[in-house]
Design goal:
The structure holds 2 protein chains of 2 kinds.
Chain A (H helix, E strand, L loop, with lengths): L41 H50 L8 H13 L7 E6 L2 E4 L11 H9 L4 E7 L2 E15 L2 E14 L1 H51 L14 H58 L5 H31 L8 E4 H11 L6 E4 L5 E4 L1 H18 L4 E9 L5 E8 L33 H11 L3 E6 L6 E8 L8
Parallel strand pairs in A: 7-9
Antiparallel strand pairs in A: 1-2, 1-5, 3-4, 4-5, 6-8, 9-10, 10-12, 11-12
Helix pairs in contact in A: 1-4, 4-5, 5-6, 6-9, 7-8, 8-9
Chain B lengths: L11 H5 L3 E5 L3 H13 L3 E5 L2 H11 L3 E5 L7 H11 L4 E6 L3 H9 L4 E5 L3 H13 L11 E4 L2 E4 L4 E4 L2 E2 L4 H12 L7 H7 L9 H15 L9 E4 L3 E4 L3
Parallel strand pairs in B: 1-2, 1-3, 3-4, 4-5
Antiparallel strand pairs in B: 6-7, 7-8, 8-9, 10-11
The chains are: A alpha+beta, B alpha/beta.
Enzyme class (chain A): transferase
Protein name (chain A): histidine kinase
EC number (chain A): 2.7.13.3
C-alpha cells in the first residue's frame, strides 16, 4: 500500500518574513515507529495464540498416540508371557511331599522356556519358598498379586516398575482337574518375574519420537502466526500513518483498499470519512475565504469614494463658515465623520490583510528609544506621557508597524486609562538565550475589569457597553496584536499591582527576521 | 489609524508658492475631490483621466509636479512614470492604496520620488508636494560651485551632476539624496535619517523609498552597480558616500 502524501496546503499568500525565528510552534513529536515492537502487541499475542493452539494439539495427539502404542506393545508382550506361563504350569507335576531340590529343578525347567523373554520362576507352598534364581523370594512380587494369585485359578499378572526397570509379574496357582470345568487348588503357587527392558526401550523411543514430532510442529506454527500477524499489522500500521497524516492537516490522505476482509472495510470507512472531512473542511475554508474576501472587497470599494470625500473635507470645513447654522452643522458633521470613516476603513483593510496573511514586514535597523520618541512627538503626546527610554537599544523591526503598536497602546491609555501614562523600554533574555525588546505602556486609571481582560484584544470589543462608539475604530488593539505577532512577539494586558491602572506589555524579538545567533 | 501629520507651514518659501500640478487619476470622484482640495489651497491643477491624456497634457501644461495614480486603465501608472522619466526630471508622486505593496515597489523602481496612500487629506497631499518641490531650493551654503568626487562632478548651485563630463539625468529625489550624502563624505546615515532630511518625513517613513532611490542612483552613477563605490551600504546601519 502506498500512502498518497500530498503537498502541504497552507495558505498560499504568506509573506516570507511572516515566520520569524521565534515563532515556535508546539513541538510535535514525530514518532517514526511504524515498526515499533511492543512487548504485548498484536503480533506477540497472535504468535502466542498460534503457538498455544499448536502446542495443545501436538501435545494431545502425541500423548494419545503414545498411550495407545505403549499399551499395545506391553499388552502383546504380557499376553504372550501369561499364556506361555499358564501352559508351562499346566505341564508340570509335583510329587508330594514337596522336595525343595526337585522343585528348584522343575522351576529351572520352566524358567528356561520363558517367552518372549527368559523369566525367573518362584514357587510358594505353605512355608516353602523356592526359585529358579539365587534368591528364594522375589522383591518384585507385591502382596496384592499374591492375594489375587491365590483366589484366581486361571492366574493373574501385574506390571511393576522397580528401580526404573519394568517387570511383568505373573501369579499362577497349581490346580487339580477334578472334573469337567472344576478345579481344586493344590496350594502351590508359581510366580514368574520377567524384566521387559526391550519394551521399555521401545516405549521410551516412542516418547522421544512423539516429542520430536511435536517440536517442529510448534516451530512450523510460528510461520503462519507471523504471516497472520503481518497481514493484520500492515493495514493497521498504514491506517495509523494515514490517521497521523490526516491529523497533520493533509486531509487528502487516503489508504489503498485491498482484499475484502474486515480490515479492507475499515480502510474503506476511513477513506469515506476522510473524504467527508476533507469536503467539510474545504467548504469551511471556502466560506471563511469568501467572508474574508468580502470584508477586504468592501473596504477596498469604500476606499475610493472616501479618497474623494476626504480630500474635500477641508473645503467643507472652511466653506461651512458662510452657511446658515443648521447647514453648517450638517456640513461639519459630514466632514468629521468622513475622517472617522477613513480611519475605520483603513483599519479594516489592515485587519483583512492580516487575515489574508498578506501583511508584510519591512524591517529596518533603528534605535528603539528614538523610534518611540518620534511616535510621541509626532502625535504631540510628549507632554502627556512620561517616557523612560534608555538610549542605545539597537533593534531590527518594522518602524511603521512598531509606530502603530506604540501609538495604539499609548492612545488607548490616554483615552481609557488615567494620567500619568508611562512608556518604558527595556530588553530581556528569552529562555533560549534570544534577546527581546520589551515595551511597556502603563497608566494610573481604573484598570481593566476582569470580565474585559480576556477580550481586550478582540475586534470591535467595547469595554463599556454604554459607550456605543469609541474614539478609535474599535480595531486598534486587534491591529496592535496582529502587528506584534507579525514580528514574532507577544502583547499582554494586565492590571498593575494594587489596582494601579492597566499595563500593556509588548515583547518582540530584538532582531526580527534574523536567524538567532 | 494614525493621525495625519500636520504641514510645517513655517517656511516662508512655502506660503507664497503656488504650484502647477497635473493629476492623472481615473476615478472621477477622487480626481475631482483632490483637484478641489488642492485648488482650494491655491494651486493650479490640471487633471487627466488616462495615462495617454496625461502625457499629452504634460507637454502642453508644463506642470511643476505630477500626481500619478498607479491603477489606470490602458497605459498604467508605472508605464507613465517610466515614459516621463526617460526625458524629464519632473517630480512625480504616486497615489496608491496601502497594501498594494508590490505596486509601491514597482512605482519607486520606475522613478517616482514619493508616494501617498489613498485616502489622504488634502493637507497630507500638499505636505508631500511641498517636500518634493523644496528639494530644488537648497542653497549652496558657501561651498564651491562644483565638487569633484572621483569621476563625479556635483554642481551644488546648478543642481546637476556629471560623470566623466557627461551630464546625468537625475530625478529630484536622486539629486537630493546625492547632494545630502556627498555633503558629508564617509558619514553614515540611517534610512530614517535620510527619510527625514531628503524626503522630509517628520514621521516614520517607508524605508523602501530610500532603498529604491539608492538603487536608481547607483544604476546611474556607479561603474558596477553591484559593487558600488560612491553610495556604499553599511549593513544594519545605512548608507554613506565613499570613501573613494
Amino acid at each position: 500500500m502506498r500512502l498518497r502524501v500530498p503537498r502541504p496546503r497552507g495558505p498560499s499568500r504568506r509573506g516570507p518574513s511572516r515566520r520569524g525565528p521565534s515563532r515556535r510552534g508546539p513541538s510535535r513529536r514525530e514518532a517514526t515507529g511504524g515498526d515499533r515492537r511492543r512487548p504485548f502487541g498484536l503480533r506477540a499475542r497472535l504468535v502466542l495464540a498460534f503457538l498455544l493452539v499448536a502446542a495443545v494439539s501436538a501435545g494431545t495427539t502425541a500423548a494419545l498416540t503414545f498411550r495407545e502404542v505403549r499399551n499395545a506393545v506391553l499388552g502383546t508382550a504380557q499376553d504372550t508371557a501369561v499364556s506361555a506361563f499358564r501352559d508351562q504350569v499346566r505341564e508340570v507335576y509335583f510329587n508330594l511331599p514337596l522336595n525343595t531340590t526337585d522343585l528348584v529343578g522343575t522351576l529351572r525347567t520352566i524358567a528356561r522356556n520363558g517367552r518372549p523373554h527368559p523369566w525367573y520362576v518362584y514357587a510358594e507352598y505353605g512355608s516353602i519358598r523356592a526359585s529358579s534364581g539365587t534368591s528364594p523370594t522375589s522383591t518384585v512380587i507385591t502382596p496384592e498379586l499374591r492375594r489375587e494369585a491365590h483366589s484366581e485359578p486361571s492366574g493373574s499378572f501385574q506390571r511393576v516398575v522397580k528401580d526404573g526397570v519394568p517387570y511383568l509379574t505373573i501369579g499362577m496357582p497349581v490346580v487339580f482337574e477334578v472334573g469337567e470345568n472344576t478345579v481344586m487348588p493344590t496350594g502351590i503357587v508359581l510366580y514368574a518375574v520377567m524384566p521387559m527392558p526391550e519394551e521399555q526401550a521401545n516405549v521410551e523411543a516412542l516418547g522421544v519420537a512423539a516429542r520430536n514430532g511435536a517440536l517442529p510442529g510448534l516451530a512450523v506454527a510460528l510461520v503462519p502466526a507471523l504471516i497472520a500477524a503481518r497481514s493484520v499489522l500492515r493495514p493497521v500500521r498504514e491506517l495509523r500513518q494515514a490517521t497521523r497524516s490526516m491529523g497533520g492537516g493533509r486531509l487528502d490522505t487516503r489508504i489503498e483498499v485491498r482484499g475484502n476482509d474486515e480490515l479492507a472495510d475499515l480502510a474503506r470507512t476511513f477513506n469515506e470519512s476522510a473524504a467527508g472531512l476533507e469536503h467539510s473542511v474545504n467548504e469551511l475554508r471556502q466560506a471563511e475565504e469568501r467572508a474574508r474576501r468580502f470584508a477586504s472587497d468592501v473596504s477596498h470599494e469604500l476606499r475610493t469614494p472616501l479618497a474623494g470625500m476626504l480630500a474635500v473635507t477641508e473645503v467643507l470645513d472652511e466653506g461651512a463658515e458662510g452657511l446658515d447654522s443648521d447647514t453648517a452643522r450638517a456640513v461639519r458633521l459630514i466632514s468629521a465623520e468622513t475622517g472617522k470613516l477613513a480611519v475605520l476603513v483603513e483599519d479594516l483593510m489592515e485587519i483583512s490583510r492580516f487575515d489574508a496573511r498578506a501583511a508584510e514586514l519591512n524591517t529596518d535597523e533603528v534605535d528603539a528609544a528614538e523610534t518611540i520618541r518620534r511616535t510621541l512627538e509626532h502625535r504631540r503626546w510628549t507632554d502627556l506621557v512620561r517616557a523612560e527610554l534608555p538610549d542605545g537599544i539597537r533593534t531590527r523591526l518594522d518602524p511603521r508597524r512598531f509606530d502603530v503598536v506604540v501609538a495604539n497602546l499609548v492612545g488607548n491609555a490616554l483615552r481609557h486609562g488615567g494620567p500619568p501614562v508611562t512608556v518604558r523600554l527595556g530588553t530581556a533574555a528569552g529562555a533560549d538565550g534570544s534577546a527581546w525588546l520589551v515595551t511597556e505602556v502603563a497608566d494610573r486609571g481604573p484598570g481593566i475589569g476582569p470580565d474585559v481582560l480576556p477580550h481586550i484584544f478582540d475586534r470591535f470589543y467595547k469595554a463599556d457597553a454604554a459607550r456605543t462608539r469609541s474614539v478609535g475604530s474599535g480595531l486598534g488593539l486587534a491591529i496592535t496584536l496582529e502587528n506584534v505577532r507579525l514580528h514574532g512577539g507577544t502583547v499582554r494586558a494586565a492590571n498593575g499591582p494594587g489596582g494601579t491602572g492597566a499595563v500593556f506589555t509588548v515583547e518582540m524579538p530584538l532582531r526580527t527576521g534574523e536567524a538567532p545567533a | 489609524m494614525t493621525p495625519a501629520p500636520l504641514p510645517t507651514a513655517s517656511d516662508p518659501l512655502d506660503t507664497v508658492r503656488m504650484a502647477r500640478l497635473l493629476l492623472i487619476e481615473d476615478d472621477p470622484s477622487v480626481r475631482e475631490g483632490v483637484e478641489l482640495g488642492l485648488r482650494h489651497r491655491g494651486h493650479e491643477v490640471r487633471t487627466a483621466a488616462t495615462g495617454e491624456a496625461g502625457l499629452a497634457a504634460l507637454r502642453e501644461f508644463r506642470p511643476d509636479l505630477l500626481l500619478l495614480d498607479l491603477m489606470l486603465p490602458g497605459m498604467n501608472g508605472v508605464q507613465v512614470c517610466r515614459t516621463v522619466r526617460e526625458e524629464s526630471q519632473l517630480p512625480i508622486i504616486m497615489l496608491t492604496a496601502r497594501g498594494d505593496d508590490f505596486d509601491v515597489v514597482v512605482g519607486l523602481e520606475a522613478g517616482a520620488d514619493d508616494y501617498i496612500v489613498k485616502p489622504a487629506r488634502t493637507e497630507v497631499i500638499e505636505a508631500r508636494i511641498r517636500a518634493v518641490l523644496r528639494r530644488f531650493e537648497e542653497p549652496g551654503g558657501g561651498r564651491p560651485a562644483v565638487e569633484f568626487h572621483g569621476e563625479l562632478a556635483i554642481d551644488r548651485s546648478g543642481l546637476s551632476a556629471a560623470k566623466n563630463g557627461e551630464r546625468l539625468t537625475l530625478a529630484p529625489s536622486e539629486m537630493r539624496l546625492l547632494l545630502h550624502l556627498s555633503a558629508s563624505p564617509e558619514q553614515v546615515f540611517s534610512r530614517q535619517q535620510l527619510l527625514e532630511h531628503v524626503w522630509e518625513y517628520s514621521h516614520h517613513g517607508d524605508a523602501r523609498l530610500v532603498d529604491a532611490c539608492v538603487r536608481r542612483l547607483r544604476n546611474k552613477i556607479e561603474d558596477v552597480p553591484g559593487s558600488p563605490r560612491y553610495i556604499q551600504t553599511l549593513r544594519g546601519f545605512g548608507y554613506r558616500f565613499g570613501p573613494l
